[in-house]
Amino acid sequence: MNFKEVLLVVNPVSGQTNKTKIISTVQKRLEDENINFHLFTTSGKNDKEKILSKIKTKNIDRVIVAGGDGTINLVAEVIKKLELTLGIIAAGSANGLAENLNLPEILTEQLEVALGVNYIDLDILCLNGIICLHISDLGINAELIKNYENSSIRGKLGYLIQSIPTLMQSEYPFNFQIEIQETRMEAKAVLLGFANANKYGTGANVNPQGKPNDGVFEILVFKKLDLIDILKTLRNETDLDSDFVEIIPTSEAKITCIKPVSFQIDGEYIGKETHIEIKMLPEKLRVAIP
Ligand SMILES: Nc1ncnc2c1ncn2[C@@H]1O[C@H](COP(=O)(O)OP(=O)(O)OP(=O)(O)O)[C@@H](O)[C@H]1O
């Protein structure tokens, strides 16, 4: 291995995985290779500053993150301007980025990938100043995420259980104005997605042609809630009906809605918004992949 100082960033509260096991497995594997192991446990407060300081003072040359998408994005924000490869041990409740990068599910296999030589230079989307590595959206899915975050049942089951009351209370469809350079268009949609990847963390393949490293993202205009079409995305089918979803590739956009609409980035509920400015950052994020 061509690195000497590895930092493992662990979120102790993400998902339901055993973090002690992750820490001891990483530590043991690095000891076997005579590589120095450094640990940072997130607290939810000033983590970015503390991680950056640790990287600088310990001359870190590989970072591994064990957490959910929120923790991955936090570390990405810190290292995006540094020449570091990020290894991912998916340990969240939905793990959308890991699902998109086809990362293995077994810890020892995840670790070999995280310490390996293969990588992808991921595009980094920026929405209203917040980074996004796979999918953000306005509308019904963000409402689902908000209600899921407030519910007591975790995992995909919790997401499913609270979907019925959410759908019944929602005021969808929503009216959006999409502005791309000089072009403006109106869209009525249940959900307006901004995708740098193919799938949601649930596995739904909503953007089959999207590539996470092509400098382009896709605006997904979901026009209706159609069970058959939703099942198609979950079965990884690639011929999505244009009456169900219209896909607009671009590298920047401005979205306006008159009434505030629920907004989420990579699975984290942000709030209700009327304006979203989306651009591609000039930096890339180097992530270790199988
Ligand atoms: N020690 C801590 N105590 C409480 N909250 C924390 C702590 N460390 C990090 N957090 C919070 O955890 C959240 C990020 O969680 P993360 O997204 O990684 O996990 P998840 O929600 O279980 O996974 P996923 O996004 O994949 O569903 C952030 O809001 C962050 O502030």
TrEMBL record:
Record carries keyword Thylakoid: no
Superkingdom to which the source organism belongs: Bacteria
Keyword Kinase (UniProt): yes
Pfam families attached to this UniProt entry: DAGK_cat (PF00781), YegS_C (PF19279)
Keywords annotated in UniProt: ATP-binding, Kinase, Nucleotide-binding, Transferase
Record-linked InterPro entries: ATP-NAD_kinase_N (IPR017438), Diacylglycerol/lipid_kinase (IPR005218), Diacylglycerol_kinase_cat_dom (IPR001206), Lipid_Phosphate_FormReg (IPR050187), NAD/diacylglycerol_kinase_sf (IPR016064), YegS/DAGK_C (IPR045540)
Span of domain DAGKc: 1-131
TM regions (residue ranges): none
Name of the protein this chain belongs to: DAGKc domain-containing protein
Biological classification of the source: Bacteria, Pseudomonadati, Bacteroidota, Flavobacteriia, Flavobacteriales
